[in-house]
């Protein structure tokens, strides 16, 4: 996309719209926080509007690392979403104060934002973080159809849609109908360098009799298939009976019962499983990645997990299922190996292959940074936002 000569020096008023923001912890919220703070560091005025999803986060305005954060009252939970009664009035006012809006989807209010942005004369640039895939149920089927209709209304009006990889865009039921509008920007990958002493100390604390450490970073939810990783121990134990799987992330998720459904499975392998919960501190997370021999992501669907790039930057190879979008980081870096989706035996065998020959799947940090350049990600965003901002 071309940009006029004067545009790069223009400081924009950017509105970023999403459902949850920091301290809510998912790959999407980390993505948006890194992007928003980077744009602020370049002199842009950035406002993030999101739900006041926690009682400890009252509705209202605050500033976080230079980013203006507007949290809206959200008293009603609906599956993964929240209902915000004041949303139409709040977003209408905010749209008129900004030059461009970047909306991160899926989001219930997608069509409403697009409609009000059209009235305000502001272009909407959506970033697509993955097709909405909910556990099967009558209510979730209705939610899925409604959300897709809202998305299509917005997508027809958006001049550009940001996708995270060509691989996912070519296989996405959200993006494929609008493929000619999709611009690909790799997600922001930022994490401190691990502290070798801290990582080694943590490794010694987590190991069983010096056995390998297999890490899982993420929520314990159905689409990420943590159950398959646990079942893969049947294969892994044939060679490494002292292996341990360490889970870092939330596991009791309010909107679905994956953790509860798999309690018998967890109990069967409890001597080799450890659940640390969410690691919020980035340095501690970097040390955790470095302490592990491999990070395994057994997902059925995943657009482009930040976890992969973070692990690779910390020197730890990745086993990922061979799914659209999810396989990109392993494919473009060579720092890991792909397993068949939905197949615990394949996940176990692939994990063994990496454990048996780690040097083959390990690349220098600078090599990974050259592929997932944070600077290039922000440059691309800035260029697109400049091109379509209100003049």
- Overall pLDDT score: 92
Helix content: 25-40%
Radius of gyration: 21 Å
Strand content: 15-25%
Please summarize the sheet with the most strands. 6 strands, mixed
Reading side by side through the largest sheet, how are the strands ordered? 3-4-2-1-7-8
- Beta-strand segment tally: 16
Quick one: overall form?
Answer: globular
Structural class: alpha/beta
Number of helices: 16
Poorly predicted parts:
1-6
The N- to C-terminal Cα distance equals 17 Å
Descriptive key words:
391 residues, six-stranded mixed β-sheet, 19% strand, alpha/beta, six-stranded parallel β-sheet, disordered N terminus
Give a verbal description of the structure:
With 391 residues, this protein is α/β, with parallel strands linked by helices. 38% of the residues lie in helices and 19% in strands. The chain contains 16 helices and 16 strands. The chain has helices at 27-41, 87-95, 110-120, 138-157, 166-169, 196-206, 226-231, 233-236, 258-261, 263-268, 282-291, 306-313, 328-333, 344-356, 365-371, 374-388, and strands at residues 13-17, 45-52, 60-64, 67-73, 76-78, 81-83, 100-105, 124-128, 161-163, 182-184, 213-217, 244-248, 273-277, 294-297, 318-321, 336-339. Strands 3-4-2-1-7-8 form a six-stranded mixed β-sheet, with helices on both faces. Residues 1-6 have low confidence and may be disordered.
